[in-house]
Amino acid sequence: MEDQEFLKKALEEAKKAYKFGEVPIGALIVRNGQIISKAFNRKEFLQDPTAHAEIIAIREASRKLNSWRLTDCTLYSTVEPCVMCCGAIIQSRIKRVVYSVPDPKFGGVESLFRILSDKRNNHRPEVERIELLEAEELLKSFFKELRERCRSLA
After folding, report:
1. Using the 8-state DSSP alphabet, how is residue 26 labeled?
2. What is the distance, to the nearest Å, from the Cα of residue 57 to the centroid of all Cα atoms in its chain?
3. Cα(41)–Cα(64) distance, rounded to whole angstroms?
4. 61 CB-near residues (< 8 Å, 6+ apart)
5. Distance CA 119, CA 122 (A)
6. Chain-centroid distance, C-alpha 122
7. For residue 102, how far is the Cα from the chain centroid?
8. 108: which residues sit within 8 A by CB, 6+ positions away?
9. Strands 26-31 and 96-101
10. 2, 22, 44, 54: which one is catalytic?
11. CB atoms within 10 A of CB 126
């Protein structure tokens, strides 16, 4: 039940991204049942291709804990982490990853690639997928509105 609650907190972050016109993805870093950091996508606002929710949350958690090693932490993300985020997860030694919506176009956990479970990596976090329909609906709504805006400009 705790995982579901933390995913819902990540969904709150995703809703913030949605309000700002960002792809609605939210992430949390949790240690010992406490939220260490939370973030949402900020690629457009920062004009930074690395400003994914997971990367921002990892950076903030590392800063707060004064360590790049997040060995006893869990990352919660509303969407399957991409290849770049999976690299950061491995580098930061995150213990667990819990996500909701699979990403068939960019997913690095299982949809497109299986980076986190690749035996060649020196670190392989535990991974769990928990379905959160509201996260999927938020993404669908965002991209539907984006397509409609693009059509109206054409």
Report:
1. E
2. 8
3. 19
4. 29, 31, 36, 37, 70, 73
5. 8
6. 22
7. 11
8. 80, 81, 82, 83, 84, 85, 86, 87, 115, 116
9. unpaired
10. 54
11. 12
110 tagged catalytic: no
Each residue of 44-84: pLDDT tens digit? Answer: 999 999 999 999 999 999 999 999 999 999 999 999 999 99
CB atoms within 10 A of CB 51: 18
Contacts of 115 (CB under 8 A, 6+ apart): 83, 86, 87, 90, 108, 109, 121
* pLDDT, tens digit (0-9, with 9 covering 90-100), for 115-145: 999 999 999 999 999 999 999 999 999 999 9
Task: Give the span between the Cα atoms of 92 and 28, in whole angstroms.
Answer: 14
36: tokens are 């260490």
Opening angle at CA 75, ends 25 and 54, nearest 5: 40
Beta bridge partners of 39: 27
